[in-house]
Amino acid sequence: MAIRPGRPYPLGATWDGGGVNFALFSKHATAVELCLFDAPKAKSERIRILLPDRTDFVWHGYVPDLRPGQLYGYRVHGPYEPEAGHRFNSNKVVLDPYAKAIGRTATWSPALLGYDPEDPRKDLAMGPADSAAIAPLGAVIDTGFDWDGDARPDTPWSRTLIYEAHVKGMTQLHPDVPPELRGTYAGLATEASINHLKSLGVTALELMPIHQHAIDRSLAERGLTNYWGYNTLAYFAPDVRFASTTLPMGPVREFKSMVRALHRAGIEVILDVVYNHTCEGDRLGPTLSLRGVDNASYYRLLPGDRSRYEDFTGCGNTLNMQTPRVLQLIMDSLRYWVTEMHVDGFRFDLASALARELHAVDRLSAFFDIIQQDPVLSRVKLIAEPWDLGEGGYQVGNFPNGWAEWNGKYRDAVRHFWRGDSESAAGLATRLSGSSDLYEDDGRRPHASVNFITCHDGFTLRDLVSHERKHNAANRDLNRDGSDQNISQNFGVEGVTDDLTIRDMRWRQMRSFLATLFLSQGVPMLSHGDEFGRSQLGNNNSYCQDNELTWLDWDIDDDQRAFLDFVKHATQVWTSQATLHRRKFFHGRPIRGGSVKDVAWFRPDGEEMTDEDWRHERCTCLGMRLEGNLIEELDDDGQPVHGETLFAIFNAHIETQDVAVDGVTAGESWELLYDTARPEARGKTFGGGATYAMQARAVAVFRLLGKESTP
Q1: Alpha carbon of 376 to those of 157, 266, 340, 341: distances in Å?
Q2: Is a pLDDT exceeding 50 seen at residue 711?
Q3: What Rg value do the Cα atoms of the chain yield, rounded?
Q4: 540 and 599 both lie in a single domain
Q5: Which of 4, 177, 607, 679 is the most buried (most CB within 10 A)?
């Protein structure tokens, strides 16, 4: 087959209508062979073609007459010298790091190991087995797609409500999704799925990893799978397991169609991306892509032993952000998903690992500098998971301007308060107010805080209030996996004096958690299924469970249906109240020279909280008044904000407390928007100066109607 020199850019396989240009970066390779396969089940390549040219360490060649759908991989030649950081093995077919589609997924086999597992030197001896029959393969694609006038919703941060979901888990059991579309990108784009999101007021769907992943060897040997997908193989290719078609280009088109449908419904798409490590694991992991392409360029290696990897992720390796080509790989991937696939933002898994220049986390690292000046990426939503597993990796509040963060301190403060921990009220108040202690000093706004109670990692909301310990036996690791932090919760079940069953109290606690979430300044995030109380039977690390344990069960009972109705109402209140969407921080001082503060905090007797009150060990009930008439603040369109004044009560006590309704001025009347202990009581009005019987472990919120109109 004829081959011409072609071009070194763009990297990857690019079809131009007459043939395909192939370009692969490898600084330390001595030769690169392009391998073309006829079918996914082919035992070996049909032809090998030596790439004829190299420019700036990019090997390239152009093959005329190749068409989209062509399957391909590479054999990369070079030294196998693990002690020097090199693990080239031309017995292995490796995946193009820039593959836009996957023509064959990886199936675990010892033949994928670059070393000889039978040699006593372990990974220091090169493996002779050929991997062509089972190696993952890329597929050439045609990027053409009719977007039909697709327009990004561009929802302002201050109006954003995020829903974290797993593509398969969301619709795999949905009765109103056609069976052939369940668990797929197309399933998420159905009317049933979109209507559910809209009924919750969701403005952004944050998808757990959809980049093509590979199953961990340890899971394969235990008969399990990597359901979550935080084990990336290909940073440009949508995962084929979520496609309703088996054609190589099917996942790309189906993903684009999903984005187009969600955009039409006003819902943004945010991808959870894993650029901190890859599926190749530690030195004993498989050779699938980057390791065989140029191990020493792509991974962080231990300075004193380059046969081993620096691991800030707990997954065996860390990508080397110090090298320009790794930065290029990540930036090219991000831009591709924005420009070609039309996504609206990213949540970066273990983002602190991306900020490590040498060892310490540097929040002004090259990665953030590059994104901040990028004309494409600086305009989309950027969310950091602000920690990793290395020393100094917990960086909540330390990411640069322009970034939002999963606020782990918010989650912890809310849990501490509702568990009844001593001296937890001040922490709750800070988080309710938008966490200015974390974000104001560097010029960020309240929306830098992505607030959440639960997420994919840990207990579901229902399990959080139902289990005192984790139950991870199904993971076949002797219940050793999963976090041991915050396991013994005891959220208000023991010691409650109200005449309630344990079941009723748990549902109340769940309502109180989500009410707190939707009364907080910042960006609220719901974890899929929490809105109707899904359970994983106490499993707080369900990453390897691709079954009914993790799939959403839409056949809900009366308790779940009532809870869902409450959540919909709470999100409607959040959506309708401009006071809950502030773009500036509260300061707790009078506004416009008057006597009314922008936010004020009150004891149950109606007196404003003092420093001594905040320090009181058993401060478990407080009121929060949010002033709504904030003329000094402008919305995203430059118009003055005119919100309503709200008064919320948070009672973490185990007994009912009598609380003054308004806490400021007698003569005002208030409407109860909801009470988590009395879901049926919404809409009742109360006169100023009256007291409200605030039940145990509950939240109530009122809106100011005006001067008192009822006795």
Answers
A1: 17, 21, 12, 13
A2: no
A3: 27
A4: no
A5: 177
Residues 609 and 498 in one domain: no
- The answer to whether residue 116 sits within a structural domain is yes
Its domain, for residue 86, covers 12-139
Whether the pLDDT of residue 492 is over 80: the answer is: no
pLDDT (mean) for 509-531:
98
Residues 186 and 328 in one domain: yes
Is residue 285 in a domain? Answer: no
| Of the candidates 453, 531, 467, 471, the residue with the CA atom closest to the CA atom of residue 502 | 467
Pairing state between β 232-238 and 268-273:
unpaired
Same domain membership, residue 433 and residue 526: yes
Please give the full DSSP string across 248-291, using - where no structure is assigned.
TTHHHHHHHHHHHHHHHTT-EEEEEE--S--TT-STTS--SSHH
* Residue 123 annotated in active site: no
Q: Could you give the 3-state DSSP secondary structure of residue 545?
A: coil
**Which tokens is 299 given?**
């991974």
Q: How many domains does the chain divide into?
A: 3
User: pLDDT tens for residues 535-550?
Assistant: 999 999 999 999 999 9
Length of the chain: 711
Catalytic option among 216, 344, 385, 405: 385
- Evaluate whether 629 touches 642 at the Cβ level (below 8 Å): yes
Active-site annotation holds for 633: no
**Dihedral of alpha carbons 353, 358, 360, 364, sign:** negative
- With 0.85 as the threshold, say if the pTM is over it: yes
Asked if 460 and 531 count as a contact pair (C-beta separation under 8 A), the reply is no
Same structural domain, 233 and 126: no
Which of 164, 268, 294, 349 is flagged as catalytic? 349
Is 125 in a helix, a strand, or coil? coil
Please identify, among 579, 600, 620, the residue that sits at the C-terminal boundary of a domain.
579
Tell whether 307 is covered by a domain.
no
Written as one letter, the residue type at 181 is: L
523, part of any domain: yes
Over the range 340-366, which residues count as b (16 or more CB within 10 Å of their CB) and which as e?
A: ebbbbbbbbbbbbbbbbeeeebebebb
Q: Are residues 345 and 391 in the same domain?
A: yes
- For residue 187, the number of C-alpha atoms closer than 13 Å in the C-beta half-sphere is 25
Is residue 354 domain-shared with residue 220, that is, in the same domain? yes
Q: What is the pLDDT of residues 97-118, one digit of tens each?
A: 999 999 999 989 999 999 999 9
Contact 240, 137 (CB under 8 A): no
Please list, residue by residue across 671-692, b when 16 or more beta carbons sit within 10 angstroms of its beta carbon and e when fewer do. Answer: ebbbbbbebeebeeebbbebeb
